[in-house]
Amino acid sequence: MKQNLKKELKQLYSDVPPIPDSRKMAVLMAQARSKAPALPRESSLLWFIRTQIRFVNRKFLLVQFLLICLYGFLTTAVLQDNDAFLLLVPFAPIAVLLGTGEFSRSFYCNMTELEFPSRFSLTQILLARLLITAVIDMLSLSSMLLFTAMKTYLTFGSLILYGLVPSLLAAAGALFLINRSRDGDSRYYVSAYCITLSAIGAISLTAWPAWYNGAATAVWLLVLAVSAMAFAAEVYKMLRDCSGWLESAKLQ
Amino acid sequence: MAYGGEFSDHAGEFEKIIAAYYEDIYKFCFRKIRDPAEAQDLTQDTFIRFMDAAGTYVDIEKPKALLYTIARNLCLNWLKRARPVSLDEPENGIAPVADDFSDESIRKVYLSIAVSALPDDQQEILILRYGQGLKIGEIAEILGLSRFQVMYQIRSALDRLRKNMRKED
Questions:
Q1: Stated pTM of the model
Q2: What is the C-alpha separation between A17 and A9, in angstroms, rounded?
Q3: Considering B83, B116, B138, which residue would you say is the last residue of a domain?
């Protein structure tokens, strides 16, 4: 019945008489030939992302900044030399948690805030939003790495590994949860997951020090590769799903 | 990722746009005003205005949306000026053929009457979606609504249409 009505509507609207005078179109074409095309050139990706930045909550930026300040203070003023890296593993998922909190806001608001002002597709908007969040998270992580590098005996390569693995694990898991729970509850799941990850990281530093030996580097690299692939898969799933949401949404 | 329109990088852009959308715009105008000759005049006017606007309008990334917007406004102006339609005149240009009393034809007439009983904005949104085959996003752009508002209006129009059809049955 529902599909029939749509089909009948299409049939009803298909009854259009042919164009009465095809010469008029030729006249229009001649007019078009004489006009210099003045359509604007394409907008750059940078321009599009810049337009999206204004939708990012200022509180999110402020809290990220405060987190870095706290990290910097604890690392440089409170912790002893060589202990500085103790904070990196538990802090990295927290930085991601803040970013995903901003990102998931769009989901539990049913995309309204994204959709209302925009003429771009949801895929483009989400990709831009994801990129902005990822850049901010990466800046936070880089700042943490710099603070840590100033006070630790570990090589910068190891630090990057210890910072990236928890971040990617947090980001992949968060996207996994957001993709499967597009409602207000997703932020609680994501918070619980990231805090658990952070707690495991904090506990592991004292409970399982062997994790941070040189011999465990191969395992860290493996986890890095797996989490990167999981993250890429979740981004792909999110973009694929959102490109089909609106056009395939049931209208009746 | 390129956000430019498909026509923005080529020479003879206007001709390509006319070739691609002339018939669609004519059909849209006809569905709105139900007069073939006037619909073609409005189509001509739409493209002339489009070419004039293209030089100054800074946001022509999707010519389709702008074309429909111009055509829609021209049709609305024309309808305002046009004399009131006689109540006996068939709606949507679809009248039952005198010797065609098949179920299909009768249902088509019922549907036509049910559609014409809808408010103008709902009729318009159905034309854009099912007559012109536009996507939700494109309709949203033309009507200046959000996609969710468009989806809601289509659903409301279909529900109302179904109710009208039941009455006719």
A1: 0.48
A2: 17
A3: B83
